[in-house]
Amino acid sequence: MVKQVVEEKYLLNVQHLKKYYQIRGAFGRLSPVKGEVKAVDDISFQLEKGETYGLVGESGSGKTTTGRALLRLIDPSSGHVLYEGKDIANLSQEELRKIRKDMQMVFQDPFSSLNPRKRIGQILEEPLKIHGIGTKKQRQETAFDILEKVGLKPEHYFRFPHEFSGGQRQRIGLARALVLKPKFIILDEPVSALDVSIQSQILNLLADLQKELDLTFLFIAHDISVVRHISDRIGVMYLGHIVEEAPTDSLFEKPLHPYTQALLASVPRRTTDVKQELISIEGELPSPLHPPSGCVFHTRCPHAWERCKQEVPVYQEIHQRHFTACHLYDEK
């Protein structure tokens, strides 16, 4: 059964998205193409309004590239990204600038994404100024209001990014994303660089803001245990492909794909035993320049057989809203 899409139901509808990077010689564009890095290779998923969709996988699986392609921070090689029915891939720069008020991104490293020469107030007011929103006084009031919403104080308006801790800088990054009152926010590894105690504060803040402002999140992370606490549905990425997607509870109760099973088995759990043996995935992530034939996971899969090396598995619904791409579940 091929996954069916009802376009009108979704705030964001991603269809057959691809992002390939051409590899050339030392002379750049003057050199012939030697190959292509398939960073994102034909993925489809949808987000309903008000939900959080978690995207997880190892480093190099294509998660961040996917997020950037959705906002056209990088241009997709092919595919469609429908936001409220409008295909972002075909918008002009002016149309894209207008729609970006509704679509924002919070980056993994907040310090590198904040201008070190500008005070926090200037950083927060800049998007409002670019879009011609409000007077100078109104923009300042909006900045103070958004700082309060993310748990910062009014005096922080006058400080520079280097004067803040990592957790505070992430709050500033979130405030900058919220200042335009968006409907959809991509969160790219927003807590991976933070201490565990600060991680929980940021996750709780995100949950509160989502309810208060009716936000839709795409939460990108490599830590599947973190994604569990905030996501309604989870998509598991491997080497540019989504290999499994399911509601969060369903994914954790009965993971189908061997890669998802290995990810969950590698998460430390509380146990009465003194020693806990963690399961690791054998081998290294293959190069996206030369991905394996057939199923991309077959080189590391404990259940791989000859068919896995030759045929690409069909992405199909196994249980209600639980999809996977694995020959273990092919209909006999």
Explain what you see.
The protein is of the alpha/beta class and 332 residues long. The chain has a single domain, classed as Rossmann fold (3-Layer(aba) Sandwich). Helices cover 30% and strands 23% of the residues. The protein has helices spanning 63-70, 93-99, 110-113, 120-130, 136-149, 166-178, 196-213, 224-228, 248-253, 258-265, 306-310, and strands at 12-24, 33-47, 52-56, 78-83, 86-87, 103-106, 184-188, 216-221, 233-238, 241-247, 315-319, 322-325. Strands 6-7-8-3-9-10-12-11 form an eight-stranded mixed β-sheet, sandwiched between helices. Strand 11 (315-319) and strand 12 (322-325) form a beta hairpin. The protein is globular, with a radius of gyration of 21 Å.
CATH level-four homologous superfamily name: P-loop containing nucleotide triphosphate hydrolases
**Radius of gyration using CA atoms only:** 21 Å
Q: At the first level of CATH, what is the class?
A: Alpha Beta
Secondary-structure element pattern, one letter each = EEEHEEHEHHHHEHEHEEHHHEE
Low-confidence segments, given as residue ranges, are 1-7
Q: Would you identify the CATH architecture?
A: 3-Layer(aba) Sandwich
